[in-house]
Amino acid sequence: MTIVGLTGDEAIAYAVKQSKVDIVAAYPITPQTIMVERFSKYVADGEVYTGYVCVESEHSALSACVGASLTGARVFTATASQGLALMHEMLYIASGLRCPIVMGVANRALSAPINIHGDQSDMMGSRDSGWIQIYAENAQEAYDWTIQAFKLAEDRDVQLPVSVNIDGFIISHSMEGVDVLEDEVIGKFLQSRKPLFTMDPEKPITVGALCFTDYYFEFKRQQVEAMQNARGVLDKVCKDYKGISGRNYGAIDTFGMEDADAAIICLGSTAGTAKEVARKFRAQGKKVGAIKLWLYRPFPSKELIEAAKHAKALAVFDKAISFGAPYGALCTDVVSALHELEERPRIFNVIYGLGGRDIQPSEIELVFNRALEIAQTGVVKESTVFLGVRE
Amino acid sequence: MVTLKELSTDELFASGHRLCAGCGEGIINRMTMKALRGPTVIVAATGCSEVATTIYPYTSWRLPWVHVAFENAAAVASGVIEAYKAMARRGAWNKQVDVIAMAGDGGTYDIGIQALSGALERGTDFLYICYDNEAYMNTGIQRSGATPHGADTTTSPAGSVIPGKPEWKKDLIGICAAHGIEYAATASPAYWNDYITKVRKGIEVNGPAVIDVISPCPLGWRHESARSIEMVRLAVETRYFPIYEVERGKYKLNINISKPKPVEEFLKLQGRFGHLFKPTYRKDVIHEIQQNVDVNWKRILILSTQN
Hints:
The structure holds 2 protein chains of 2 kinds. By secondary structure, chain A is of the alpha/beta class.
């Protein structure tokens, strides 16, 4: 066991180094920049054979990544916020051309007003772009998921890009002890990419052709298949990773859901606070629980139903707003997934943390108390709660 | 310079594509394929050539060809080139491959200029060819930064007050050359030998090379399909489109036109300039265009004689 002090950004950079990527093409943006700064130093010191393409924008970053991925390379990029928004066009092309690119995203609020701190508006705005989305709770998870992400993305039955998301500053800039694996161990787990096609002049292919009404739909249907395949492949990847690391990952992580009356569902770093507060409530005999989604796309409906079906009330946390929608994106997905249950938990949405607004254990306590009250009465008075905002 | 007999008889750009009769891009594609040094990958931007040569499940290309989006051919090419290098470093690739990016003037002068500038600044070892038909022809003839002054397009229509595009064409070669790149040149498919020689030179230099090749568009320029090559020959003979190259900052005029025809001879055959002749003869606008042609020619001449 080797414990090193790493921030979330550094943990991802280190995992990328150990994953032996061929190409990194990226553009600086807070709070992601440390990922590519650290990686540039590995390149400058000759510690990797990676080609680092210093592009002039995020749009070109992902464009270069797509070119490299189609050529057969293992590819990584990183971004946040406005950078992800600038990439938006290319996100769909990367998934549509089935490029298994891995991208580190240090989630950050979107302008305007401009703000550099963490919320998940950026990736939630890109949730339909055909990328597999993983959210890590801390630096250790960021490290572990980055390595697993390459194996998931490059699987023959998947061939899709993967984003590994960490909360801006809270995870990206906080130093934690991270248990890192030996290079050789990772080398055995994650072998060189085996591309299905390359830009080989001896076997010429045309990529990115024009598809009209007669073929476009079929391509999209295949993408749906690939996204569905990712569910099963993820479980296999996690099982293999447990074998080398002893750490157990999957689509969701649960706490106390065996008998919880009320539970919180969230993504990323907030899960740590939620679990801590839940422990406190449990000590007082209150039956609460927490569900953290590691995997957001493809949405783990089956696991969620299994974990939440006995609960009476659920508070779904969204660190992003979907303006004009019934709920935030995560809550909308949870409601949809649970719809098939005949007896469903009562659900309310908690919008929180926008622009990096901190969330305190005392606020989580408020939410648990409200959820417990709803579990008892069965009445949801407010379907959406804005937590921690001055009104 | 090459002779016809020296050209490859391979046809890496197959017939049967759906470009218009008389389209310059098909001619340019075929000529480009005749100038290759060896194994090559084409990175295409969105545009007429892309939509008309790769309608799924068909393709006209007998070499690796990739299209990603409109504005990013130069960035995609960078990724392809760096990927080959990185894969070679870990022993997974051992072939020499040339990379050519091809984009229209909209994808180069306008929306793609940032990605192009980035690739030139990084010293990307590729050839970038701009098919310059002087407007967004694929979307239905809208004005671009390459559209000439006075041209009638659907977004710079000749009206009763404004006689076509008010602005002048951007100096793409000047912009590219200012990056301090190895090679930049203009060309016309009417002078096939000059073009093919330049493509080969652009491939052979170590570092970025850019060729802006004028591409006749019967639909957008509104001339007879059979007269496409005549149009781009006239463009040169009138000094409207000077043929020159810039090697590491040094300009050289490649085709000297000692007795130029009046630019009017080039303009009057094209519907895009028709409003300058009928219903009233716009001597003022034609004169302005002629003056601009003269000034630009003199500029290229001075730059060429400074070496």
